[in-house]
Design a protein that fits this description.
Strand content: 25-35%
Strand order of the largest sheet: 13-12-9-10-11-14-21-19
Cofactor: biotin
CATH topology of the largest domain: D-amino Acid Aminotransferase, Chain A, domain 1
GO molecular function: ATP binding; biotin carboxylase activity; metal ion binding
Shape: globular
Largest sheet: 8 strands, antiparallel
Distance between the termini: 84 Å
Catalytic activity: N(6)-biotinyl-L-lysyl-[protein] + hydrogencarbonate + ATP = N(6)-carboxybiotinyl-L-lysyl-[protein] + ADP + phosphate + H(+)
Pfam family, one: Biotin_lipoyl
EC number: 6.3.4.14
CATH architecture of the largest domain: 2-Layer Sandwich
Structural class: alpha+beta
Length: about 600
Amino acid sequence: MFTKILIANRGEIAVRVIRACEEMGIASVAVYSELDRDALHVRRADEAYLIGPGPAAESYLRVDKILEVAKRSGAEAIHPGYGFLAENAAFAAACEEAGITFIGPPASAIDAMGSKTAARDLMKKAGVPIVPGTTEPVADVKSARRIIERTIGFPVAVKAAGGGGGKGFRVALTDDELEAAFEGAAREGEKFFSDATVYLERYLPDPRHVEVQVLADRHGTVIHLGERDCSVQRRHQKLIEESPAPAVDEELRQKIGKIATDAAAAVHYVGAGTIEGLLQDGEYYFLEMNTRVQVEHCVTEMTTGVDIVKEGIRAAAGEPLSIAQEDVQLRGHAIECRINAEDASKNFAPAPGRIGAYREPSGPGVRVDSGVGPGGEVSPMYDPMVAKLIVWDVDRESATRRMLRALSEYEITELKTLIPFHTALLATRQWGNAETCRDLVEDRKWLRELAFPPPTPSDDEDDPKVEQTYTVEVSGRRFDVRVIGAPFAGGGAGSLNGSGPAGAAKKPRRERKSGGGGGGADTLPSPMQGNMWRVKVKQGDTVEEGQLLCIIEAMKMENEITAHKAGVIAEIPITEGAAIGAGDTIAVIRSPPAAE
């Protein structure tokens, strides 16, 4: 077994791996960017090394710097977590060349499954059912249109060959949408995976997203740990996961479990991995393989009792799996909610910022995997995840009630999160009926009802009013009273559960960046902080309400900004490639003069 492991990641997954190392008696080494100097994973590890500036391309994606730290610290193995370099075959090969064990599959398996087109072709030849579509990259829009007309039909999914995690996934419902979908998928593939090639799949409008957890060792043993349902998604990125899947019975579980183990065995897999698929009308289709530990591995751990991270470490060290397939039993039901720094009411716009007070829920059957604490910061440079909240109980209904209880206990101030969204969705009839909830997640009107309370208006910006909670007793009975007024010098309970700034301290007066718009109805402010990726209009253009104006990249997501009204672009003080802050003016749109 290893004596020291370097974790080439950050945030909650780095903390998760460090905890596993502690329990296995293995020393841990953290790496961090300049932005993460005070991060939880840095403080938790036995050793920590700075590897570069904030941008991931200059730190967490620098293979040379990570290998240098591994040699300097004496780490015998590297755990990549998920994201960053986790599915990078070149990184796995570089580790091997440096004499350092990569905790994951061999580079050949990552290569085989890393390209979605190659994986689809491999699975098709192995007899594994795949979603109808292409198994070769599609060169251009013209070729795509020809293939769709001949074999696939609309609606169609355009997907980046090297994609994953919802990146590089666009849908064209009609021919009119194909060019934009093709361009968007290729652009995200190039940006996130350095691969602009795309392929096509038939788009299934409302399937269940069901995936199977596999484990494999170096001795040829491959097992599965049952399935997870990850159907609740926004922009093809997961929000809520559960195990077991509500629509899967024991017969189907055996069927898709065999598909998963056959797929892993076909590429001589080692470690923890996931076969993702789509389930519709009782038919299961292979989608892709994630050659790493998944974000949602926790729900499987809760229902099987198997520590997936430890099994991956043991497999990398050459040890056999500690369990056999016949030993795997699913007990009860587990649910995971991703607590992201996002505003659901604004179509899940990223909402980075600094955390004020922070207290995680606890009690029977409650687990929190997080990488933050009081005063921590969710940076726009990285993923918007604050934490993962996982609960277990005897059945789905009981687990739902436990999750609602845990969500109500979660206290986060001065940061907007998805806690109100999760609370609202889990209380709906759709969730209770185990539907995909796609109609709710895409219902902008329903989402707007989850809007955070607006800041309390104040005549004097230098003397802001805030909402504070006090506890009083009347005739021996305890009451919580909310008071809106000037901040109390002694502090108070800020707004909780990701409901926005607590406002306990005076803020400096900010200059308006209205571009001359004056903040009126003509002015469209940016809903988020990020980088201006694309600007699609120019001054003087006439636009319709809902027309695409620009694309802002924030927290590893592309966010399309549309016109809030019809009119003429009077001002557009934005530039491609430049940073933009929340509240900065994107455009000033003047209504056309009324016809005489």
